[in-house]
Design brief:
This is 3-oxoacyl-ACP reductase FabG. The chain is of the alpha/beta class. About 45% of the residues lie in helices and about 15% in strands. Strand 1, helix 1 and strand 2 form a beta-alpha-beta unit. It binds NADP nicotinamide-adenine-dinucleotide phosphate.
């Protein structure tokens, strides 16, 4: 890469939460950023935060589980920003329930967004990475990959993403492409707020209760995860591949 070329990063589910913090962080690292979310208008705040700081970003509406939308989004990003060679598969949803109450539709929705979405996005972007001889893929797993009551769908998807990551690392390494997974513990976002709402707790009480179980005695913030992702997507991280990093304020059982 010449010193004047700017790498293009794609962050999915980046209208808010961990994805938004990651998009802003990667822009601060000098990347041009495609901010993808279901609703293009919802990406406006993230894009404005980047451009106000002097960065380059575009908002892209795309359902990552829809093949045609993914192909159109990646083609648009390549045309407007340049070849995407950094990909953060962050888009996610919860459809929690105990197994006996979980519908097949709730199972499919979670598999489609996390696993099919990461597959489609990685497939569409890898062409650009292989052509460039450089690529960085980061997949968002979760501490729930180790098993979590009420999340048989989500834990299966997040464990699946770890195997997906390791296989990408083996297939794409020879083209200069790394793949790693970041597995957050409890991070304060709309996702964990929705869980607090579902169990009938105020979010502050929910966070305080979670913090008592975390060795560093606080819950995580989106920037804690963006920081780990910035490392894996960095120019200097080319020999770090196929890894799963738990970012959870302490070790997990
Ligand atoms: P969040 O606040 O709920 O943000 C997720 C974003 O993804 C939302 O903007 C959502 O859009 C978008 N999205 C959902 N389905 C999509 C689709 N099909 N295509 C494109 N975008 C889609 O979640 P978060 O807490 O930041 O989590 C980000 C990632 O980290 C997820 O993969 C999550 O599973 C993982 N994670 C989070 C935690 C945590 O404690 N927060 C812990 C471990 C792992 P809508 O609002 O329109 O649905």
């Amino acid at each position: 890469m010449s010193t004047t070329e700017q790498r293009v990063a794609v962050v999915t589910g980046a209208a808010r939460g961990i994805g938004a913090a990651t998009a802003v962080r990667l822009a601060a690292e000098g990347r041009a950023v495609a901010v993808i979310d279901l609703d293009e208008a919802a990406c406006k705040d993230t894009v404005e935060q980047i451009t106000a700081a002097g960065g380059r970003a575009i908002a892209v509406g795309c359902d990552v589980s829809d093949e045609a939308q993914v192909e159109a989004a990646v083609a648009r990003i390549a045309g407007e920003l340049g070849a995407p060679t950094i990909l953060v598969n962050n888009a996610g949803v919860l459809r929690d329930n105990l197994l006996f109450k979980m519908s097949a539709s709730d199972w499919d929705t979670v598999m489609n967004v996390h696993l099919r979405g990461a597959f489609l996005m990685s497939k569409a972007c890898q062409k650009h990475m292989v052509d460039a001889g450089f690529g960085r893929i980061v997949n968002l797993s979760s501490s729930s990959a180790l098993g979590n009551r009420g999340q048989v769908n989500y834990s299966a998807a997040k464990a699946g993403l770890q195997g997906f990551t390791k296989t990408l690392a083996k297939e794409l390494g020879k083209f200069g492409v790394t793949a790693n997974s970041v597995a957050p513990g409890f991070i304060a976002t709309e996702m964990t707020k929705a869980t607090a709402d579902r169990v009938g707790m105020g979010f502050d009480d929910f966070k305080a209760a979670a913090a008592t179980q975390i060795p560093v005695a606080r819950v995580g913030e989106p920037d804690d995860i963006a920081n780990a992702i910035a490392f894996f997507t960095g120019e200097a991280a080319g020999f770090v591949s196929g890894q799963v990093l738990y970012v959870a304020g302490g070790p997990l059982d």
